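INFO batch 0412 | record 1 of 1 | parsing
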Amino acid sequence: RRGMLGHVARGGGSIGSQLVSAPRRLPESLDADDVAVFLADLNTHRDRAIVLAMVLGGLRSAEVRSLRLADVDMGMRRVRVLGKGNRERLIPIDRVFFEECAAYLRSERPAGCATPECFVVLRGPTRGGPLTEAGLRKVFRVHRSSSGAGRVRPHRLRHTYATELAGAGIDLLVLRELMGHASPETTAKYVHLAPEALAAEFAAARAVIGR
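INFO prediction complete | emitting tokens
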């Protein structure tokens, strides 16, 4: 499989411990072109890093805003996230996120800024303060309009991350940890098995039983 997260696809492909559930409405995800157009319209390293944290790391909007400088491990290329229910998780993210984050810290974050949160306001009377929910919503609203990528929203970027990984064959127990889901049923929403895949797995299982 090729896509935004295609580099994580496994060879072989086995359902393994994936959870199979009854058909249901799947979370909305985005096409790679929509994400690319939206990213290209952003004019700061900060905003590109924020969007990449969502689409390449699956972070929620609130998790991105509360991310602290101390949580960003440039060397290990991972971030420490405190999610819902104070559940902590370590998320590996592609190097492009860390490149944008490093550029933001180097050239955009105000010098001497003591705010522990990583992403701060860049202009105006609250410059240097933590980015607010309203401020982040404005970034998305403005660039949805100017880019024409009207479907891009934080929760859809996160859903795109999960959908890409599930489609690439990642173990859903691992995906559950990466997403910070309390319930396996939430993670199972990202699984959509084609009839051909079910038939192939059934045939393989029958062959093992018949030996």
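INFO post-check: The longest strand covers residues 78-82.
INFO record closed
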